Amino acid sequence: MGKVAIVTGGSRGIGAAISKALKAAGHTVVATYAGNDEKANAFKDDTGIPVYKWDVSSFEACCEGIAKVEAEHGPVEILVNNAGITKDAMFHKMTPEHWQAVIGTNLSGLFNMTRPVWEGMRERNFGRIINISSINGQKGQAGQANYSAAKAGDLGFTKALALEGAKKGITVNAICPGYINTDMMATISDDVMQKHILPQIPVGRLGEADEIARCVVFLASDDAGFITGSTLSANGGQYMD
Ligand code: NDP
Q1: Please, which of 55, 117, 129, 157 could form a disulfide with 172 given CB 3.0 to 4.6 Å?
Q2: Which residues contact 181 (CB under 8 A, 6 or more apart)?
Q3: What does the pLDDT average to over 217-230?
Protein backbone atom coordinates (compact mmCIF):
# COMPACT_ATOMS: atom_id res chain seq x y z
CA MET A 1 0.00 0.00 0.00
CA GLY A 2 1.27 3.49 -0.83
CA LYS A 3 2.74 5.52 2.00
CA VAL A 4 3.59 9.19 2.57
CA ALA A 5 7.25 9.86 1.80
CA ILE A 6 9.44 12.94 2.17
CA VAL A 7 12.65 13.18 0.15
CA THR A 8 14.92 16.03 1.25
CA GLY A 9 16.77 17.60 -1.65
CA GLY A 10 14.26 15.69 -3.73
CA SER A 11 14.03 18.17 -6.60
CA ARG A 12 17.41 17.61 -8.27
CA GLY A 13 20.10 14.99 -8.88
CA ILE A 14 19.89 11.75 -6.92
CA GLY A 15 16.98 13.08 -4.84
CA ALA A 16 14.87 13.74 -7.93
CA ALA A 17 15.43 10.16 -9.09
CA ILE A 18 14.46 8.92 -5.62
CA SER A 19 11.28 11.02 -5.56
CA LYS A 20 10.20 9.75 -8.98
CA ALA A 21 10.98 6.12 -8.16
CA LEU A 22 9.03 6.23 -4.88
CA LYS A 23 6.08 7.78 -6.71
CA ALA A 24 6.28 5.08 -9.39
CA ALA A 25 6.22 2.50 -6.57
CA GLY A 26 2.84 3.89 -5.48
CA HIS A 27 3.81 6.23 -2.65
CA THR A 28 2.60 9.78 -2.04
CA VAL A 29 5.82 11.75 -2.37
CA VAL A 30 6.81 15.27 -1.41
CA ALA A 31 10.21 16.71 -2.24
CA THR A 32 12.01 19.43 -0.31
CA TYR A 33 14.70 21.78 -1.54
CA ALA A 34 16.81 24.67 -0.23
CA GLY A 35 16.54 27.60 -2.63
CA ASN A 36 16.72 26.71 -6.33
CA ASP A 37 13.11 27.66 -7.13
CA GLU A 38 13.59 27.34 -10.88
CA LYS A 39 14.74 23.71 -10.74
CA ALA A 40 12.16 22.84 -8.07
CA ASN A 41 9.24 24.32 -10.03
CA ALA A 42 10.38 22.63 -13.24
CA PHE A 43 10.57 19.33 -11.32
CA LYS A 44 7.06 19.86 -9.91
CA ASP A 45 5.62 20.67 -13.35
CA ASP A 46 7.36 17.68 -14.89
CA THR A 47 6.44 15.07 -12.25
CA GLY A 48 3.38 16.38 -10.38
CA ILE A 49 5.34 15.88 -7.13
CA PRO A 50 4.76 18.79 -4.73
CA VAL A 51 7.84 20.71 -3.56
CA TYR A 52 8.44 22.50 -0.27
CA LYS A 53 11.27 24.91 0.46
CA TRP A 54 13.07 24.90 3.79
CA ASP A 55 16.59 24.60 5.11
CA VAL A 56 17.27 21.22 6.73
CA SER A 57 20.04 22.76 8.83
CA SER A 58 17.35 24.60 10.87
CA PHE A 59 15.45 22.49 13.41
CA GLU A 60 12.64 25.06 13.63
CA ALA A 61 12.25 25.15 9.84
CA CYS A 62 12.08 21.33 9.74
CA CYS A 63 9.41 21.21 12.49
CA GLU A 64 7.30 23.83 10.70
CA GLY A 65 7.80 22.28 7.26
CA ILE A 66 6.98 18.74 8.38
CA ALA A 67 3.87 19.95 10.25
CA LYS A 68 2.67 21.58 7.01
CA VAL A 69 3.40 18.46 4.95
CA GLU A 70 1.58 16.24 7.47
CA ALA A 71 -1.44 18.57 7.55
CA GLU A 72 -1.65 18.44 3.75
CA HIS A 73 -0.72 14.81 3.04
CA GLY A 74 -0.93 12.80 6.28
CA PRO A 75 1.68 11.36 8.65
CA VAL A 76 5.15 10.79 7.22
CA GLU A 77 5.92 7.08 7.01
CA ILE A 78 9.05 7.18 4.82
CA LEU A 79 11.80 9.76 5.28
CA VAL A 80 14.73 9.93 2.88
CA ASN A 81 17.48 12.19 4.21
CA ASN A 82 19.18 12.97 0.91
CA ALA A 83 19.90 16.74 1.00
CA GLY A 84 23.62 17.35 1.00
CA ILE A 85 26.27 19.88 0.07
CA THR A 86 30.03 20.04 -0.36
CA LYS A 87 32.38 22.85 0.67
CA ASP A 88 35.68 21.26 -0.22
CA ALA A 89 39.07 22.59 0.86
CA MET A 90 42.32 21.07 2.01
CA PHE A 91 42.27 21.15 5.79
CA HIS A 92 44.97 23.81 6.09
CA LYS A 93 42.66 26.10 4.14
CA MET A 94 39.34 24.95 5.62
CA THR A 95 37.45 27.64 7.51
CA PRO A 96 34.92 27.28 10.35
CA GLU A 97 32.28 28.35 7.80
CA HIS A 98 33.20 25.45 5.48
CA TRP A 99 32.97 23.11 8.45
CA GLN A 100 29.70 24.39 9.95
CA ALA A 101 27.85 24.56 6.64
CA VAL A 102 28.56 20.93 5.77
CA ILE A 103 27.98 19.58 9.28
CA GLY A 104 24.78 21.66 9.53
CA THR A 105 23.22 20.27 6.36
CA ASN A 106 24.75 16.81 6.00
CA LEU A 107 24.75 15.71 9.66
CA SER A 108 22.53 17.98 11.79
CA GLY A 109 20.01 17.89 8.94
CA LEU A 110 19.39 14.24 9.80
CA PHE A 111 18.59 15.07 13.42
CA ASN A 112 16.45 18.05 12.39
CA MET A 113 14.34 16.04 9.93
CA THR A 114 14.13 12.76 11.82
CA ARG A 115 13.31 14.05 15.30
CA PRO A 116 9.94 15.60 14.29
CA VAL A 117 8.72 12.39 12.55
CA TRP A 118 10.13 9.92 15.07
CA GLU A 119 7.46 10.06 17.78
CA GLY A 120 4.66 9.59 15.24
CA MET A 121 6.44 6.59 13.72
CA ARG A 122 6.83 5.08 17.20
CA GLU A 123 3.13 5.60 17.95
CA ARG A 124 2.07 4.01 14.64
CA ASN A 125 4.63 1.19 14.94
CA PHE A 126 5.93 1.77 11.45
CA GLY A 127 8.61 3.85 9.79
CA ARG A 128 11.31 3.79 7.17
CA ILE A 129 14.29 6.16 7.49
CA ILE A 130 16.86 6.05 4.69
CA ASN A 131 19.97 8.19 4.98
CA ILE A 132 22.07 9.00 1.92
CA SER A 133 25.66 8.96 3.16
CA SER A 134 28.67 8.58 0.83
CA ILE A 135 31.63 6.40 -0.02
CA ASN A 136 33.72 9.28 1.30
CA GLY A 137 32.19 8.83 4.75
CA GLN A 138 33.46 5.25 4.66
CA LYS A 139 36.96 5.73 3.29
CA GLY A 140 37.73 9.44 3.82
CA GLN A 141 38.66 11.86 1.04
CA ALA A 142 41.39 14.51 0.90
CA GLY A 143 39.85 17.97 0.72
CA GLN A 144 36.68 16.74 2.40
CA ALA A 145 37.40 16.52 6.15
CA ASN A 146 34.06 18.25 6.77
CA TYR A 147 32.09 16.12 4.31
CA SER A 148 33.73 12.83 5.32
CA ALA A 149 33.11 13.59 9.01
CA ALA A 150 29.45 14.41 8.40
CA LYS A 151 28.86 11.38 6.20
CA ALA A 152 30.62 9.04 8.68
CA GLY A 153 28.45 10.62 11.39
CA ASP A 154 25.38 9.73 9.33
CA LEU A 155 26.39 6.07 9.61
CA GLY A 156 26.69 6.22 13.41
CA PHE A 157 23.33 7.98 13.59
CA THR A 158 21.81 5.25 11.41
CA LYS A 159 23.06 2.43 13.61
CA ALA A 160 22.10 4.01 16.95
CA LEU A 161 18.62 4.89 15.73
CA ALA A 162 18.14 1.46 14.18
CA LEU A 163 18.57 -0.03 17.67
CA GLU A 164 15.99 2.37 19.11
CA GLY A 165 13.47 1.83 16.31
CA ALA A 166 13.75 -1.94 16.05
CA LYS A 167 11.00 -2.83 18.52
CA LYS A 168 8.73 -0.17 17.07
CA GLY A 169 8.66 -1.33 13.46
CA ILE A 170 10.96 1.47 12.32
CA THR A 171 13.93 0.54 10.14
CA VAL A 172 16.84 2.93 9.70
CA ASN A 173 19.37 2.29 6.95
CA ALA A 174 22.06 4.13 5.03
CA ILE A 175 23.13 4.08 1.41
CA CYS A 176 26.69 5.01 0.45
CA PRO A 177 26.83 6.00 -3.22
CA GLY A 178 30.12 6.15 -5.06
CA TYR A 179 30.58 8.44 -8.08
CA ILE A 180 27.13 9.13 -9.52
CA ASN A 181 26.44 10.77 -12.86
CA THR A 182 24.82 14.04 -11.71
CA ASP A 183 25.29 17.72 -12.61
CA MET A 184 28.25 17.73 -10.23
CA MET A 185 30.13 15.15 -12.31
CA ALA A 186 29.32 16.89 -15.59
CA THR A 187 31.71 19.69 -14.60
CA ILE A 188 34.70 17.28 -14.58
CA SER A 189 36.80 17.28 -17.76
CA ASP A 190 36.89 14.19 -19.96
CA ASP A 191 40.64 13.94 -19.40
CA VAL A 192 40.27 13.83 -15.58
CA MET A 193 37.37 11.41 -15.91
CA GLN A 194 39.29 8.98 -18.14
CA LYS A 195 42.67 9.20 -16.37
CA HIS A 196 41.75 9.60 -12.71
CA ILE A 197 38.15 8.73 -11.93
CA LEU A 198 37.08 5.79 -14.08
CA PRO A 199 40.25 3.74 -13.34
CA GLN A 200 39.23 3.77 -9.63
CA ILE A 201 35.88 2.14 -10.40
CA PRO A 202 36.11 -1.61 -11.11
CA VAL A 203 32.86 -1.72 -13.12
CA GLY A 204 34.36 1.00 -15.35
CA ARG A 205 31.57 3.55 -15.30
CA LEU A 206 29.81 6.09 -13.11
CA GLY A 207 26.65 5.08 -11.30
CA GLU A 208 23.28 6.48 -12.34
CA ALA A 209 20.92 8.29 -9.98
CA ASP A 210 18.24 5.70 -10.82
CA GLU A 211 20.50 2.99 -9.41
CA ILE A 212 20.52 4.72 -6.02
CA ALA A 213 16.77 5.33 -6.29
CA ARG A 214 16.13 1.61 -6.72
CA CYS A 215 18.06 0.91 -3.50
CA VAL A 216 15.81 3.41 -1.70
CA VAL A 217 12.61 1.87 -3.08
CA PHE A 218 13.73 -1.52 -1.82
CA LEU A 219 14.71 -0.31 1.66
CA ALA A 220 11.37 1.55 1.90
CA SER A 221 9.37 -1.54 1.00
CA ASP A 222 7.70 -4.05 3.29
CA ASP A 223 10.08 -6.66 1.83
CA ALA A 224 12.99 -4.94 3.63
CA GLY A 225 11.45 -5.19 7.12
CA PHE A 226 14.31 -7.37 8.46
CA ILE A 227 17.01 -4.96 7.26
CA THR A 228 17.92 -2.25 9.75
CA GLY A 229 21.11 -0.50 10.77
CA SER A 230 22.72 -1.56 7.51
CA THR A 231 24.91 0.34 5.09
CA LEU A 232 24.29 -0.41 1.44
CA SER A 233 27.32 0.45 -0.70
CA ALA A 234 26.50 1.30 -4.32
CA ASN A 235 29.86 2.27 -5.75
CA GLY A 236 30.75 -0.06 -8.62
CA GLY A 237 33.23 -1.95 -6.44
CA GLN A 238 35.35 1.11 -5.69
CA TYR A 239 35.41 0.53 -1.94
CA MET A 240 34.43 -2.55 0.03
CA ASP A 241 33.83 -1.94 3.71
P1 NDP B 1 22.63 17.90 -5.80
O2 NDP B 1 23.59 19.01 -5.50
O3 NDP B 1 22.36 17.55 -7.22
O4 NDP B 1 21.21 18.23 -5.09
C5 NDP B 1 21.19 18.54 -3.73
C6 NDP B 1 19.76 18.71 -3.29
O7 NDP B 1 19.78 19.00 -1.87
C8 NDP B 1 19.06 19.89 -3.95
O9 NDP B 1 17.68 19.59 -4.08
C10 NDP B 1 19.26 21.02 -2.91
O11 NDP B 1 18.26 22.03 -3.00
C12 NDP B 1 19.12 20.22 -1.62
N13 NDP B 1 19.74 20.90 -0.47
C14 NDP B 1 21.05 21.25 -0.32
N15 NDP B 1 21.22 21.85 0.87
C16 NDP B 1 20.01 21.87 1.50
C17 NDP B 1 19.54 22.37 2.73
N18 NDP B 1 20.36 22.98 3.63
N19 NDP B 1 18.22 22.25 3.02
C20 NDP B 1 17.39 21.64 2.15
N21 NDP B 1 17.76 21.13 0.96
C22 NDP B 1 19.07 21.26 0.64
O23 NDP B 1 23.17 16.64 -4.96
P24 NDP B 1 23.37 15.12 -5.41
O25 NDP B 1 22.13 14.61 -6.04
O26 NDP B 1 24.66 15.00 -6.13
O27 NDP B 1 23.58 14.42 -3.98
C28 NDP B 1 22.48 13.95 -3.19
C29 NDP B 1 23.03 13.28 -1.94
O30 NDP B 1 23.87 12.20 -2.32
C31 NDP B 1 23.87 14.20 -1.06
O32 NDP B 1 23.65 13.92 0.30
C33 NDP B 1 25.30 13.83 -1.47
O34 NDP B 1 26.22 14.12 -0.44
C35 NDP B 1 25.14 12.35 -1.71
N36 NDP B 1 26.16 11.77 -2.59
C37 NDP B 1 26.30 12.21 -3.89
C38 NDP B 1 27.24 11.62 -4.73
C39 NDP B 1 27.40 12.05 -6.17
O40 NDP B 1 28.28 11.50 -6.87
N41 NDP B 1 26.59 12.96 -6.68
C42 NDP B 1 28.14 10.58 -4.23
C43 NDP B 1 27.90 10.19 -2.86
C44 NDP B 1 26.94 10.78 -2.09
P45 NDP B 1 18.40 23.24 -4.11
O46 NDP B 1 18.07 22.58 -5.42
O47 NDP B 1 17.40 24.24 -3.69
O48 NDP B 1 19.82 23.70 -4.05
Answers
A1: 129
A2: 206, 207, 208, 209
A3: 97
